[in-house]
Amino acid sequence: MPESGAAKGRRFFAVHYFLLRFLGLGWWHLPEENNTNNFPGIYLYYSILTELVWVAGFVGLESVDPFIGHKDLDRLMFSLSFVVTHDLTIIKLYIFFFKNQEIQDIVRTLEIDLHQFYQNDEKNRRTVRITRIFTALFIFFGWMTIGNGNVYGIVQDLRWKAEVAQLNDTSLRPLRTLPQPIYIPWYYQDDSSFIPTFLLETIGLLWTGHIVMTIDTFIGSLILHMSTQFSIMQEAISTAYDRTMDKLINGIIESNDPVTLNYYEASLGENRREMIVRTYCTEQEIEIALENTLKSCFRQHQMLISCVDKFASTYYYGFMTQLLSSMAAICSVMVQVSRDASSLKSFSLVTSLAFFAAMIIQLALQCFTSSELTYQAERVSEAVMSCKWERMPVRLRRYLILMIARSQRPLQLSAGGFATMNNDCFLAILKAAYSYYAVLSQRQG
After folding, report:
1. Which is it for strands 419-420 and 414-415: parallel, antiparallel or unpaired?
2. In degrees, to the nearest 5, what angle opens at C-alpha 219 toward C-alphas 213 and 223?
3. 303 vs 229: CA distance, rounded Å
4. Alpha carbon distance 29, 200 (integer Å)
5. Residue 197 host element (H or E)
6. Which residues have C-beta within 8 Å of that of residue 384, sequence separation ≥ 6?
7. CB 211 within 8 A of CB 90
8. What's the CA gap between 378 and 301, in Å, rounded?
9. Backbone φ and ψ of 315, nearest 5°
10. How far is it, in rounded angstroms, from Cα 85 to Cα 212?
11. pLDDT tens digit sequence for 317-373
Protein backbone atom coordinates (compact mmCIF):
# COMPACT_ATOMS: atom_id res chain seq x y z
CA MET A 1 0.00 0.00 0.00
CA PRO A 2 1.28 3.49 -0.77
CA GLU A 3 2.07 6.10 1.80
CA SER A 4 -0.75 8.60 2.17
CA GLY A 5 -1.25 11.96 3.76
CA ALA A 6 -5.02 12.35 3.74
CA ALA A 7 -6.40 14.64 6.42
CA LYS A 8 -9.80 12.99 6.60
CA GLY A 9 -10.38 10.61 9.53
CA ARG A 10 -10.94 6.92 8.88
CA ARG A 11 -14.09 6.59 11.06
CA PHE A 12 -12.69 3.67 13.05
CA PHE A 13 -14.91 4.49 16.04
CA ALA A 14 -18.12 5.78 14.41
CA VAL A 15 -20.39 3.34 16.31
CA HIS A 16 -18.80 4.24 19.66
CA TYR A 17 -19.05 7.96 18.90
CA PHE A 18 -22.79 7.59 18.34
CA LEU A 19 -23.25 5.68 21.62
CA LEU A 20 -21.06 8.10 23.59
CA ARG A 21 -23.09 11.07 22.32
CA PHE A 22 -26.44 9.44 23.08
CA LEU A 23 -25.40 8.35 26.59
CA GLY A 24 -24.32 11.87 27.54
CA LEU A 25 -20.61 11.03 27.68
CA GLY A 26 -19.63 13.85 25.34
CA TRP A 27 -20.41 15.07 21.84
CA TRP A 28 -17.30 13.48 20.41
CA HIS A 29 -16.18 15.40 17.34
CA LEU A 30 -14.48 13.75 14.40
CA PRO A 31 -10.68 14.27 14.56
CA GLU A 32 -10.54 16.31 11.34
CA GLU A 33 -12.93 18.86 12.87
CA ASN A 34 -10.17 19.98 15.28
CA ASN A 35 -12.78 20.62 17.94
CA THR A 36 -12.17 19.13 21.39
CA ASN A 37 -15.16 20.78 23.09
CA ASN A 38 -17.31 17.74 23.79
CA PHE A 39 -19.97 19.56 25.81
CA PRO A 40 -21.20 22.41 23.60
CA GLY A 41 -24.26 24.51 24.41
CA ILE A 42 -27.40 22.66 25.44
CA TYR A 43 -25.68 19.28 25.23
CA LEU A 44 -23.87 20.11 28.49
CA TYR A 45 -27.22 20.22 30.32
CA TYR A 46 -28.33 16.99 28.64
CA SER A 47 -25.14 15.32 29.83
CA ILE A 48 -25.49 16.63 33.40
CA LEU A 49 -29.14 15.52 33.56
CA THR A 50 -28.48 12.01 32.27
CA GLU A 51 -25.46 11.44 34.51
CA LEU A 52 -27.28 12.75 37.60
CA VAL A 53 -30.40 10.68 36.99
CA TRP A 54 -28.98 7.42 35.63
CA VAL A 55 -25.48 7.31 37.10
CA ALA A 56 -25.61 9.20 40.39
CA GLY A 57 -29.29 8.45 41.08
CA PHE A 58 -29.82 4.94 39.76
CA VAL A 59 -26.40 3.54 40.69
CA GLY A 60 -26.73 5.17 44.11
CA LEU A 61 -30.04 3.41 44.80
CA GLU A 62 -28.59 0.19 43.42
CA SER A 63 -25.54 0.48 45.69
CA VAL A 64 -27.45 0.88 48.95
CA ASP A 65 -29.87 -1.99 48.22
CA PRO A 66 -27.64 -4.82 49.59
CA PHE A 67 -27.33 -3.02 52.94
CA ILE A 68 -31.02 -2.23 53.56
CA GLY A 69 -33.42 -4.82 54.95
CA HIS A 70 -33.11 -8.58 54.92
CA LYS A 71 -32.01 -10.14 51.61
CA ASP A 72 -31.98 -13.78 50.62
CA LEU A 73 -28.62 -14.96 49.31
CA ASP A 74 -29.79 -15.21 45.68
CA ARG A 75 -30.81 -11.57 45.45
CA LEU A 76 -27.80 -10.45 47.49
CA MET A 77 -25.23 -12.10 45.21
CA PHE A 78 -27.02 -10.95 42.06
CA SER A 79 -27.24 -7.43 43.48
CA LEU A 80 -23.54 -7.38 44.38
CA SER A 81 -22.49 -8.40 40.86
CA PHE A 82 -24.32 -5.40 39.37
CA VAL A 83 -23.26 -3.02 42.14
CA VAL A 84 -19.55 -3.82 41.77
CA THR A 85 -19.67 -3.48 37.98
CA HIS A 86 -21.59 -0.20 37.97
CA ASP A 87 -19.88 1.45 40.96
CA LEU A 88 -16.34 0.90 39.70
CA THR A 89 -17.41 2.18 36.28
CA ILE A 90 -17.59 5.64 37.88
CA ILE A 91 -13.78 5.69 37.86
CA LYS A 92 -13.86 5.02 34.11
CA LEU A 93 -16.36 7.86 33.72
CA TYR A 94 -13.95 10.15 35.55
CA ILE A 95 -11.26 9.25 33.02
CA PHE A 96 -13.60 9.90 30.09
CA PHE A 97 -14.69 13.28 31.45
CA PHE A 98 -11.40 14.64 32.78
CA LYS A 99 -8.92 12.88 30.46
CA ASN A 100 -11.03 13.61 27.42
CA GLN A 101 -8.39 15.66 25.61
CA GLU A 102 -5.81 12.87 25.89
CA ILE A 103 -8.24 10.25 24.55
CA GLN A 104 -9.14 12.49 21.59
CA ASP A 105 -5.44 12.98 20.82
CA ILE A 106 -5.00 9.19 20.73
CA VAL A 107 -7.96 8.80 18.37
CA ARG A 108 -6.60 11.54 16.11
CA THR A 109 -3.22 9.78 15.97
CA LEU A 110 -4.86 6.50 14.94
CA GLU A 111 -7.34 7.96 12.45
CA ILE A 112 -5.30 10.78 10.86
CA ASP A 113 -1.68 11.30 11.93
CA LEU A 114 -0.42 7.76 11.29
CA HIS A 115 -1.98 7.79 7.82
CA GLN A 116 0.66 10.17 6.50
CA PHE A 117 2.93 7.11 6.58
CA TYR A 118 2.69 3.65 5.05
CA GLN A 119 -0.71 2.01 5.62
CA ASN A 120 -2.56 -1.16 4.78
CA ASP A 121 -6.23 -0.25 4.35
CA GLU A 122 -7.35 -3.87 4.21
CA LYS A 123 -5.88 -4.57 7.66
CA ASN A 124 -7.54 -1.44 9.02
CA ARG A 125 -10.92 -2.46 7.59
CA ARG A 126 -10.55 -5.96 9.00
CA THR A 127 -9.80 -4.50 12.44
CA VAL A 128 -12.91 -2.31 12.23
CA ARG A 129 -14.99 -5.40 11.44
CA ILE A 130 -13.51 -7.29 14.40
CA THR A 131 -14.17 -4.42 16.81
CA ARG A 132 -17.78 -4.18 15.65
CA ILE A 133 -18.23 -7.92 16.12
CA PHE A 134 -17.02 -7.97 19.71
CA THR A 135 -18.96 -4.76 20.45
CA ALA A 136 -22.16 -6.40 19.16
CA LEU A 137 -21.37 -9.60 21.08
CA PHE A 138 -20.88 -7.76 24.36
CA ILE A 139 -24.04 -5.70 23.86
CA PHE A 140 -25.99 -8.86 22.96
CA PHE A 141 -25.14 -10.55 26.25
CA GLY A 142 -25.85 -7.32 28.10
CA TRP A 143 -29.30 -7.10 26.53
CA MET A 144 -29.86 -10.78 27.21
CA THR A 145 -29.02 -10.29 30.88
CA ILE A 146 -31.37 -7.34 31.34
CA GLY A 147 -34.10 -8.64 29.00
CA ASN A 148 -34.24 -12.12 30.51
CA GLY A 149 -34.16 -10.61 33.99
CA ASN A 150 -37.18 -8.49 33.11
CA VAL A 151 -39.01 -11.50 31.64
CA TYR A 152 -38.31 -13.39 34.84
CA GLY A 153 -39.56 -10.39 36.84
CA ILE A 154 -42.78 -10.22 34.80
CA VAL A 155 -43.41 -13.95 35.31
CA GLN A 156 -42.82 -13.53 39.06
CA ASP A 157 -45.19 -10.56 39.15
CA LEU A 158 -47.91 -12.55 37.36
CA ARG A 159 -47.49 -15.29 39.94
CA TRP A 160 -47.72 -12.67 42.66
CA LYS A 161 -50.99 -11.36 41.20
CA ALA A 162 -52.40 -14.89 40.98
CA GLU A 163 -51.43 -15.53 44.60
CA VAL A 164 -52.90 -12.23 45.80
CA ALA A 165 -56.15 -12.88 43.90
CA GLN A 166 -56.75 -16.01 46.06
CA LEU A 167 -56.30 -14.13 49.34
CA ASN A 168 -59.13 -12.57 51.31
CA ASP A 169 -59.15 -9.02 52.62
CA THR A 170 -57.71 -9.96 56.01
CA SER A 171 -54.81 -12.03 54.69
CA LEU A 172 -51.29 -10.66 54.75
CA ARG A 173 -50.20 -9.90 51.22
CA PRO A 174 -46.68 -10.98 50.15
CA LEU A 175 -44.25 -8.27 49.12
CA ARG A 176 -44.24 -7.33 45.46
CA THR A 177 -40.69 -7.31 44.08
CA LEU A 178 -39.02 -5.75 41.06
CA PRO A 179 -37.06 -7.82 38.50
CA GLN A 180 -33.67 -6.42 39.52
CA PRO A 181 -32.46 -5.77 43.07
CA ILE A 182 -32.58 -2.02 43.68
CA TYR A 183 -33.63 0.09 46.66
CA ILE A 184 -36.81 2.08 45.94
CA PRO A 185 -37.55 4.77 48.55
CA TRP A 186 -41.23 5.12 47.62
CA TYR A 187 -44.27 2.85 47.79
CA TYR A 188 -44.69 0.77 44.62
CA GLN A 189 -46.97 -2.13 45.57
CA ASP A 190 -49.99 -1.07 43.48
CA ASP A 191 -50.10 -1.01 39.68
CA SER A 192 -50.20 2.79 39.40
CA SER A 193 -46.75 3.06 41.00
CA PHE A 194 -45.30 -0.39 40.19
CA ILE A 195 -45.41 -0.01 36.39
CA PRO A 196 -43.60 3.39 36.31
CA THR A 197 -41.07 2.04 38.81
CA PHE A 198 -40.57 -1.06 36.66
CA LEU A 199 -39.96 1.13 33.58
CA LEU A 200 -37.63 3.40 35.55
CA GLU A 201 -35.57 0.41 36.67
CA THR A 202 -35.44 -1.06 33.15
CA ILE A 203 -34.32 2.22 31.56
CA GLY A 204 -31.76 2.72 34.34
CA LEU A 205 -30.29 -0.73 33.81
CA LEU A 206 -30.17 -0.27 30.05
CA TRP A 207 -28.57 3.17 30.39
CA THR A 208 -25.90 2.21 32.91
CA GLY A 209 -25.32 -1.11 31.14
CA HIS A 210 -24.71 0.65 27.83
CA ILE A 211 -22.31 3.06 29.51
CA VAL A 212 -20.28 0.09 30.76
CA MET A 213 -20.42 -1.71 27.42
CA THR A 214 -19.61 1.39 25.34
CA ILE A 215 -16.60 2.41 27.43
CA ASP A 216 -15.12 -1.09 27.58
CA THR A 217 -15.58 -1.87 23.88
CA PHE A 218 -14.24 1.56 22.93
CA ILE A 219 -11.10 0.95 24.99
CA GLY A 220 -10.75 -2.55 23.52
CA SER A 221 -11.11 -1.08 20.01
CA LEU A 222 -8.42 1.51 20.69
CA ILE A 223 -5.97 -1.17 21.83
CA LEU A 224 -6.74 -3.44 18.88
CA HIS A 225 -6.22 -0.59 16.39
CA MET A 226 -2.88 0.22 18.01
CA SER A 227 -1.80 -3.41 17.67
CA THR A 228 -2.91 -3.35 14.02
CA GLN A 229 -0.76 -0.29 13.45
CA PHE A 230 2.24 -2.20 14.79
CA SER A 231 1.43 -5.01 12.37
CA ILE A 232 1.33 -2.46 9.53
CA MET A 233 4.58 -1.03 10.89
CA GLN A 234 6.22 -4.43 10.46
CA GLU A 235 5.04 -4.52 6.85
CA ALA A 236 6.37 -1.00 6.25
CA ILE A 237 9.84 -1.94 7.54
CA SER A 238 10.10 -5.33 5.83
CA THR A 239 9.14 -3.78 2.45
CA ALA A 240 11.17 -0.57 2.87
CA TYR A 241 13.96 -1.61 0.51
CA ASP A 242 11.66 -2.99 -2.19
CA ARG A 243 9.38 0.04 -2.01
CA THR A 244 12.33 2.35 -2.42
CA MET A 245 13.50 0.43 -5.48
CA ASP A 246 10.00 0.53 -6.98
CA LYS A 247 9.78 4.28 -6.37
CA LEU A 248 13.11 4.86 -8.07
CA ILE A 249 12.12 2.64 -11.02
CA ASN A 250 8.88 4.61 -11.47
CA GLY A 251 10.93 7.78 -11.63
CA ILE A 252 13.26 6.21 -14.18
CA ILE A 253 10.36 5.07 -16.36
CA GLU A 254 8.85 8.56 -16.36
CA SER A 255 12.10 10.06 -17.64
CA ASN A 256 13.12 7.31 -20.09
CA ASP A 257 11.76 5.12 -22.88
CA PRO A 258 9.43 2.47 -21.27
CA VAL A 259 9.91 0.06 -24.23
CA THR A 260 13.69 0.03 -23.90
CA LEU A 261 13.38 -0.37 -20.10
CA ASN A 262 10.96 -3.28 -20.39
CA TYR A 263 13.33 -5.08 -22.80
CA TYR A 264 16.28 -4.40 -20.51
CA GLU A 265 14.27 -5.50 -17.44
CA ALA A 266 13.26 -8.81 -19.07
CA SER A 267 16.89 -9.70 -19.77
CA LEU A 268 18.15 -9.20 -16.23
CA GLY A 269 16.38 -12.01 -14.34
CA GLU A 270 15.41 -11.84 -10.66
CA ASN A 271 17.58 -8.86 -9.70
CA ARG A 272 16.39 -6.75 -12.63
CA ARG A 273 14.85 -3.95 -10.54
CA GLU A 274 17.95 -3.26 -8.48
CA MET A 275 20.22 -3.49 -11.52
CA ILE A 276 18.05 -1.02 -13.43
CA VAL A 277 18.14 1.37 -10.50
CA ARG A 278 21.92 1.09 -10.13
CA THR A 279 22.32 1.60 -13.87
CA TYR A 280 20.30 4.83 -14.03
CA CYS A 281 20.85 6.21 -10.49
CA THR A 282 24.01 7.12 -8.62
CA GLU A 283 24.84 5.50 -5.28
CA GLN A 284 24.16 8.81 -3.56
CA GLU A 285 20.66 9.06 -5.06
CA ILE A 286 19.87 5.51 -3.95
CA GLU A 287 21.18 6.21 -0.46
CA ILE A 288 19.11 9.39 -0.14
CA ALA A 289 15.96 7.56 -1.29
CA LEU A 290 16.57 4.73 1.19
CA GLU A 291 17.26 7.22 3.96
CA ASN A 292 13.95 9.00 3.32
CA THR A 293 12.08 5.69 3.46
CA LEU A 294 13.79 4.60 6.69
CA LYS A 295 13.25 8.01 8.29
CA SER A 296 9.55 7.70 7.48
CA CYS A 297 9.46 4.25 9.14
CA PHE A 298 11.39 5.58 12.12
CA ARG A 299 8.99 8.53 12.60
CA GLN A 300 6.00 6.19 12.23
CA HIS A 301 7.46 3.91 14.89
CA GLN A 302 8.12 6.78 17.28
CA MET A 303 4.64 8.25 16.78
CA LEU A 304 3.04 4.87 17.46
CA ILE A 305 5.11 4.30 20.61
CA SER A 306 4.18 7.79 21.88
CA CYS A 307 0.51 7.03 21.20
CA VAL A 308 0.66 3.81 23.23
CA ASP A 309 2.57 5.50 26.07
CA LYS A 310 -0.03 8.28 26.25
CA PHE A 311 -2.85 5.74 26.30
CA ALA A 312 -1.11 3.66 29.00
CA SER A 313 -0.74 6.69 31.28
CA THR A 314 -4.26 7.97 30.55
CA TYR A 315 -6.07 4.69 31.27
CA TYR A 316 -3.66 3.56 33.99
CA TYR A 317 -6.32 3.32 36.72
CA GLY A 318 -9.06 2.27 34.31
CA PHE A 319 -7.35 -1.10 33.86
CA MET A 320 -6.99 -1.53 37.62
CA THR A 321 -10.71 -0.79 37.99
CA GLN A 322 -11.47 -3.37 35.33
CA LEU A 323 -9.52 -6.13 37.08
CA LEU A 324 -11.09 -5.44 40.47
CA SER A 325 -14.64 -5.27 39.12
CA SER A 326 -14.18 -8.36 36.95
CA MET A 327 -12.81 -10.46 39.79
CA ALA A 328 -15.60 -9.49 42.20
CA ALA A 329 -18.40 -9.68 39.60
CA ILE A 330 -17.30 -13.04 38.17
CA CYS A 331 -16.99 -14.51 41.67
CA SER A 332 -20.45 -13.35 42.74
CA VAL A 333 -22.14 -14.43 39.52
CA MET A 334 -20.48 -17.88 39.77
CA VAL A 335 -22.14 -18.30 43.15
CA GLN A 336 -25.44 -17.26 41.59
CA VAL A 337 -25.02 -19.66 38.65
CA SER A 338 -24.29 -22.61 40.94
CA ARG A 339 -27.34 -21.87 43.09
CA ASP A 340 -29.62 -21.41 40.06
CA ALA A 341 -28.34 -24.63 38.47
CA SER A 342 -28.90 -26.63 41.64
CA SER A 343 -32.44 -25.32 42.09
CA LEU A 344 -33.29 -25.52 38.36
CA LYS A 345 -34.47 -21.90 38.14
CA SER A 346 -34.46 -21.72 34.36
CA PHE A 347 -35.14 -17.97 33.90
CA SER A 348 -32.71 -16.94 36.61
CA LEU A 349 -30.09 -19.41 35.35
CA VAL A 350 -30.20 -17.99 31.81
CA THR A 351 -29.86 -14.47 33.24
CA SER A 352 -26.90 -15.47 35.38
CA LEU A 353 -25.19 -17.31 32.50
CA ALA A 354 -25.68 -14.33 30.16
CA PHE A 355 -24.23 -11.99 32.78
CA PHE A 356 -21.34 -14.39 33.36
CA ALA A 357 -20.61 -14.46 29.61
CA ALA A 358 -20.73 -10.65 29.49
CA MET A 359 -18.25 -10.39 32.38
CA ILE A 360 -15.87 -12.83 30.69
CA ILE A 361 -16.06 -10.90 27.41
CA GLN A 362 -15.53 -7.62 29.25
CA LEU A 363 -12.31 -8.89 30.85
CA ALA A 364 -11.10 -10.75 27.76
CA LEU A 365 -11.55 -7.67 25.55
CA GLN A 366 -8.90 -5.69 27.36
CA CYS A 367 -6.56 -8.54 28.35
CA PHE A 368 -6.43 -10.24 24.94
CA THR A 369 -6.11 -7.00 22.96
CA SER A 370 -3.39 -5.74 25.32
CA SER A 371 -1.50 -9.01 24.91
CA GLU A 372 -1.79 -8.71 21.13
CA LEU A 373 -0.48 -5.13 21.31
CA THR A 374 2.63 -6.26 23.23
CA TYR A 375 3.19 -9.16 20.82
CA GLN A 376 2.92 -7.02 17.67
CA ALA A 377 5.21 -4.35 19.13
CA GLU A 378 7.88 -6.96 19.86
CA ARG A 379 7.70 -8.34 16.31
CA VAL A 380 9.00 -5.07 14.87
CA SER A 381 12.56 -6.31 15.51
CA GLU A 382 11.83 -9.42 13.41
CA ALA A 383 10.61 -7.20 10.57
CA VAL A 384 13.86 -5.21 10.74
CA MET A 385 15.89 -8.40 10.36
CA SER A 386 13.97 -9.28 7.17
CA CYS A 387 14.15 -5.87 5.47
CA LYS A 388 17.22 -6.65 3.28
CA TRP A 389 19.38 -4.54 5.55
CA GLU A 390 22.51 -6.19 4.18
CA ARG A 391 21.94 -4.33 0.88
CA MET A 392 21.72 -0.94 2.57
CA PRO A 393 24.65 1.41 3.18
CA VAL A 394 26.30 1.04 6.58
CA ARG A 395 25.41 4.63 7.49
CA LEU A 396 21.67 3.89 7.27
CA ARG A 397 21.75 0.80 9.44
CA ARG A 398 21.78 2.90 12.60
CA TYR A 399 18.06 3.60 12.07
CA LEU A 400 17.43 -0.14 12.06
CA ILE A 401 19.57 -0.68 15.17
CA LEU A 402 17.56 1.98 17.01
CA MET A 403 14.29 0.29 16.00
CA ILE A 404 15.53 -3.10 17.19
CA ALA A 405 16.71 -1.65 20.50
CA ARG A 406 13.37 0.06 21.13
CA SER A 407 11.22 -2.91 20.11
CA GLN A 408 13.12 -5.22 22.46
CA ARG A 409 11.83 -3.20 25.41
CA PRO A 410 8.31 -4.63 26.05
CA LEU A 411 5.49 -2.21 25.35
CA GLN A 412 2.92 -3.17 27.99
CA LEU A 413 -0.26 -1.73 29.48
CA SER A 414 -0.27 -1.66 33.27
CA ALA A 415 -3.25 -1.90 35.63
CA GLY A 416 -2.32 0.69 38.21
CA GLY A 417 1.17 -0.77 38.53
CA PHE A 418 -0.22 -3.94 40.14
CA ALA A 419 -0.50 -6.14 37.06
CA THR A 420 0.23 -6.19 33.34
CA MET A 421 -2.74 -6.54 31.04
CA ASN A 422 -2.18 -9.73 29.05
CA ASN A 423 -3.40 -13.32 28.68
CA ASP A 424 -1.68 -14.38 31.91
CA CYS A 425 -3.53 -11.64 33.76
CA PHE A 426 -6.84 -12.90 32.33
CA LEU A 427 -6.15 -16.41 33.64
CA ALA A 428 -4.98 -15.07 37.01
CA ILE A 429 -8.22 -13.12 37.50
CA LEU A 430 -10.30 -16.19 36.64
CA LYS A 431 -8.29 -18.32 39.08
CA ALA A 432 -8.68 -15.71 41.83
CA ALA A 433 -12.41 -15.43 41.18
CA TYR A 434 -12.78 -19.21 41.33
CA SER A 435 -10.79 -19.36 44.58
CA TYR A 436 -13.11 -16.84 46.22
CA TYR A 437 -16.09 -18.71 44.80
CA ALA A 438 -14.82 -21.99 46.31
CA VAL A 439 -14.46 -20.32 49.74
CA LEU A 440 -17.97 -18.85 49.56
CA SER A 441 -19.42 -22.19 48.44
CA GLN A 442 -17.81 -23.98 51.38
CA ARG A 443 -19.20 -21.41 53.83
CA GLN A 444 -22.68 -21.87 52.35
CA GLY A 445 -22.31 -25.62 52.73
Report:
1. antiparallel
2. 140
3. 11
4. 31
5. helix 191-238
6. 237, 400, 403, 404, 407
7. no
8. 12
9. -105, 25
10. 8
11. 889 888 888 888 888 888 877 776 665 556 677 777 888 888 888 889 899 999 999
